[in-house]
Each structure stands twice: as structure tokens, then as C-alpha cells.
């Protein structure tokens, strides 16, 4: 009864919170602090001044400082999304609500080998037109390859072209990128020789950077793809991270243990290998990604993909400009409409889109819940969304609260402290962001205040942009950007450059 009254009393305080947050000088009292280090939760007051954490503990209260009552709630560091596409459409949605309402305070972009070049331009833009969240970025290998090779990319690069790519990487590392990202299942990176990627990783390492990869395969050639990533870490001497780690083939469901044992052995051998994972069994990409040989006449390969990697009824079009009426339909639906086998419909959808010069996007179920949970629980995995602001996949609006609801409260696969660590301090370590991710004096005051008993995602395939519940306030650099699911209008996000 007391808890219910307390929660009700907190609601009318929202307007007061906005005023206190805007002053950048306030103290949060009575909350249970989960500090992002993995240490046990504890009651403590936390004072914020000028965008930084000024005090934690019994000396945090100060006369004349606005007080925010966090009783019954958890105060955690703002969540760091280490694989985000929330920069897409960020100019039109600078409140970044799909991310910020989850408790995400920093997005790490330039993923899957993509992203804008030069990164100095991205930083300048975000400083001139800040968003509600902080933005850090990797250099995208595909973007670099496109800048050097243009339309003539369906081949191995020449040594001279690799040298030019190295120069582009070094220029952008000097500008403050976190490291190099690859999307080796996508054009044009799919045509790269491993030696090309190694040369760029070496250049990244010379500047103290990191390597993050959407690997060459997440299904039929998963082991070889992991081997390539580990060899980059071993030879180039830099930290390597597996993007959105998954087992995306039915034949290998249940095989997380040997994969994780392999990564643990690599870590014991001195390779700093880590991963990020989103808490869903379905991915979002394009239709072509299931055909690594890019032969859109190969009916046998299409039949294999639809039998082992994404069943026709689980492969749903989320973008199809060649025929917008197909959006929301599965490959099975399209096959039935056309009166053809699913594999034929699948290939025709790709070819018809290409003939019109139009891209596509699809969501497919390829993973098992138990595997996703096991990969998340690996001590060296952190949480990511792989989502965007206007996303047809619910991960764009729900990934982080889903972990708190599913992995902590519903299944107990993680403690609350472990989950927060994976969303904040561990995530910061994995991408090389030094001054965020922990509630420690001197760190940036990126914070999230939430109710551990009710926090949950609401985004679904049918309603992918539905915002979560249970998150009360999100602060970025000491300023509230979300109050009870509503943006405050504040835009305090910063461009985050690699610490030298």
C-alpha cells in the first residue's frame, strides 16, 4: 500500500523534476543505486552539478540544491547502445525518443561497415545541431571501400587501393572515431579479401582504436567468420567485438556452449574479444543477406536459406519500394498471392527490386530464445539494440527494457546488477568510452531512474515503435531529456570522440 501511494505521489513531481534537471545542480535521494560496475545495489544519494556526478553517498545532500525523490526506484548509469542505427533520421527527430525512452543516453553508430565520412563532419553536425543523446562513431569499412573503389567494387582491391583505404582510416581515426566497423555480409565489403580488412585493422590499432564486425557469416560459415575476427585481434593487436552475436541457422540451435568456449580460450590466449547482443530471435536486414554468393538465379540456394535460416512464414518485408503493398507481408504470403513456391517468390522479389534500382528490407526469425539468452549471459557480452528511430523492428524502441523485463525479472538469467553492468559500464569498456557508464564522482551525469518492478518493453512486430513503461527520468549530461516517456525538449547530447 505504501509503495503504491509513493508511486502515485511521484507522478505530479514530473514538472518539478524538469526544473531541477535544467538547473544542472540537484540531488537524487532515496533511490537504490546500481552503479554500472556490477557491484551490489545499495541505497545512496547522488548529487549532480554542471553535468557531472559531484557526490555519491552521505555527503551528497547540500543546502540550496533541488531534491528529487527516487524512493522505490533504481538509479543507474545511462545505457550505452554499442550497436545503434538511431542516427538515421536523427535530424528530423533530435529528441531521439525511441532510444532515450529506453534509458539510452549514448548511441554508437557507424555500424555494419556503414556510416558517414568524414567522421569529422558527423561530429561538427552534432555539435552544431545537438540531439537529446550523445553520439560516438566507428569508421565504416564499406563507406571507406565505396569512397576508394566506387561502383567497381565486386572484386578484390588492388594494393594501391588498399593503401588509399588505409589513409582514409587513419584520417578518420585522427578525427576521433572509436575504431573500424565492418559489414562483411553486405556489399561492397562482402567482396573484400581478409588481407584488406587486416590492413585497415592494423591502421586502426596504430591509433589506439577498436574493431567491431558484422562478420562474414552468422549461419553456415559462422566458425570461419569467428576465426577471421579472432585472427584480426591476434595479429593487429586490438580489441575485437562481434556485432549482434547470434546463431542464425536452425541446424546449430543449442550450440552456444562450444562457441563461447572458443571465445573464452581466445581471451585466455590474450585476444580481447567481446560481443554485443540484442534480446530478440529475429533480425532485420535485406533479403539478399541470405545468399552470400549473390546468385539470384540459384533456386537450390534459396530453398536452403528458407529451410534453414528463415522460414517463408517468418521472413517479413519491412521495406519494398518496388511494390509498397507487399510491406508487412511474408515471403509465404507473396508466394501464395503469386501462386508460386516460396523460393521462387523470394528470388523474384530480389530481382524485381534490383531491376528498379530499389532496396528492400526484411525481418526474419533465425534464432532460438535459449541461445539468445545464453549469448547475453556470457560475461563478455554487452547489450545493444541494432535499432533505429523509425524502425519496423521492435528492437529500435524496446531492446534495453526487454532485457530488464525478460532476462532479470521474468527468467532470472541475469541479476539486476549484471544487466545494468552490461548496459553501461561494460558497454563503455567495450567501445572505449572512458567518462560514462558508471555512477562515480567526476563521470558525466548520464543517468536513468526506473522502477524495476514494472520496467518493460511494449514494442512488437505489429506496433514496433511503442515506447516502454517503467522508466521515469533519463538525464544526459545532467539534463533531463525524458520524463515518464515524454521528451522534455532538451538537447544536451554531445559528440563523443575517442579518448587519446
UniProtKB/TrEMBL annotation:
Tell me one GO molecular function of this protein. hydrolase activity, acting on carbon-nitrogen (but not peptide) bonds, in linear amides
Domain of life where this protein originates: Bacteria
Signal peptide segment: 1-23
Q: InterPro entries, per this entry?
A: Amidohydro_3, D-aminoacylase_insert_dom_sf, Metal-dep_hydrolase_composite, Metal_Hydrolase, Metallo-dep_Hydrolases_sf
* Sequence ranges assigned to domain Amidohydrolase in this UniProt record: 67-300, 329-481
Recorded hits in Pfam families, A to Z, give: Amidohydro_3
Q: Which UniProt keywords apply?
A: Signal
Q: What is this protein called?
A: D-aminoacylase
Q: Which organism is it from?
A: Sphingosinicella microcystinivorans
Amino acid at each position: 500500500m505504501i509503495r503504491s501511494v509513493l508511486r502515485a505521489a511521484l507522478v505530479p513531481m514530473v514538472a518539478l523534476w524538469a526544473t531541477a534537471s535544467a538547473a544542472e545542480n540537484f540531488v537524487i535521494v532515496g533511490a537504490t543505486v546500481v552503479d554500472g560496475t556490477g557491484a551490489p545495489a545499495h541505497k545512496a544519494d547522488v548529487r549532480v552539478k554542471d553535468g557531472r556526478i559531484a557526490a555519491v553517498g552521505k555527503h551528497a545532500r547540500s543546502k540550496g540544491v533541488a531534491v528529487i525523490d527516487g524512493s522505490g526506484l533504481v538509479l543507474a548509469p545511462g545505457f550505452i547502445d554499442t550497436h545503434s542505427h538511431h542516427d538515421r533520421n536523427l535530424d528530423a527527430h533530435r529528441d531521439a525518443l525511441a532510444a532515450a525512452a529506453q534509458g539510452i543516453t549514448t548511441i554508437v553508430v557507424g555500424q555494419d561497415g556503414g556510416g558517414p565520412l568524414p567522421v569529422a563532419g558527423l561530429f561538427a553536425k552534432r555539435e552544431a545541431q545537438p540531439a537529446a543523446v550523445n553520439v560516438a562513431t566507428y569508421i565504416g569499412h564499406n563507406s571507406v571501400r565505396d569512397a576508394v573503389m566506387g561502383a567497381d567494387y565486386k572484386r578484390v582491391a588492388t594494393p594501391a587501393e588498399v593503401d588509399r583505404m588505409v589513409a582514409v582510416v587513419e584520417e578518420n581515426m585522427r578525427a576521433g572515431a572509436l575504431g573500424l566497423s565492418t559489414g562483411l555480409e553486405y556489399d561492397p565489403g562482402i567482396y573484400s579479401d581478409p588481407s584488406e580488412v587486416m590492413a585497415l585493422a592494423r591502421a586502426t590499432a596504430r591509433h589506439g582504436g577498436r574493431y567491431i564486425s558484422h562478420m562474414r557469416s552468422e549461419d553456415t560459415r559462422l566458425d570461419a567468420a569467428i576465426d577471421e575476427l579472432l585472427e584480426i585481434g591476434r595479429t593487429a593487436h586490438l580489441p575485437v567485438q562481434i556485432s549482434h552475436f547470434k546463431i542464425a541457422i536452425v541446424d546449430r540451435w543449442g550450440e552456444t556452449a562450444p562457441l563461447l568456449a572458443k571465445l573464452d580460450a581466445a581471451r585466455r590466449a590474450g585476444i580481447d574479444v567481446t560481443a554485443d547482443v540484442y534480446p530478440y530471435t529475429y533480425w532485420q536486414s535485406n533479403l539478399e543477406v541470405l545468399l552470400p554468393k549473390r546468385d539470384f538465379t540459384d533456386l537450390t540456394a534459396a530453398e536452403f536459406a528458407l529451410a534453414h535460416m528463415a522460414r517463408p512464414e517468418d521472413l517479413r518485408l519491412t521495406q519494398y519500394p518496388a511494390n509498397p503493398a507487399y510491406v508487412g507481408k511474408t515471403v509465404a504470403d507473396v508466394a501464395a498471392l503469386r501462386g508460386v513456391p516460396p523460393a521462387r517468390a523470394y528470388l523474384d522479389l530480389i530481382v524485381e527490386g534490383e531491376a528498379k534500382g530499389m532496396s528492400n528490407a526484411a525481418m526474419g526469425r533465425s534464432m532460438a530464445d535459449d541461445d539468445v539468452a545464453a549469448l547475453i549471459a556470457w560475461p563478455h557480452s554487452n547489450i545493444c539494440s541494432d535499432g533505429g528511430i523509425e524502425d519496423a523492428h521492435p528492437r529500435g524502441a524496446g531492446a534495453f527494457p526487454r532485457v530488464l523485463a525478460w532476462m532479470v525479472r521474468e527468467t532470472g538469467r541475469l541479476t539486476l546488477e549484471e544487466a545494468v553492468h552490461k548496459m553501461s559500464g561494460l558497454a563503455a569498456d567495450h567501445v572505449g568510452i572512458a567518462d560514462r557508464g558508471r555512477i562515480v564522482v567526476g563521470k558525466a551525469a548520464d543517468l536513468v531512474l526506473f522502477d524495476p518492478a514494472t520496467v518493460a518493453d511494449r514494442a512488437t512486430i505489429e506496433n514496433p515503435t511503442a515506447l516502454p513503461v517503467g522508466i521515469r527520468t533519463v538525464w544526459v549530461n545532467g539534463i533531463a531529456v525524458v520524463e515518464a516517456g515524454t521528451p522534455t525538449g532538451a538537447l544536451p547530447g554531445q559528440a563523443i570522440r575517442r579518448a587519446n
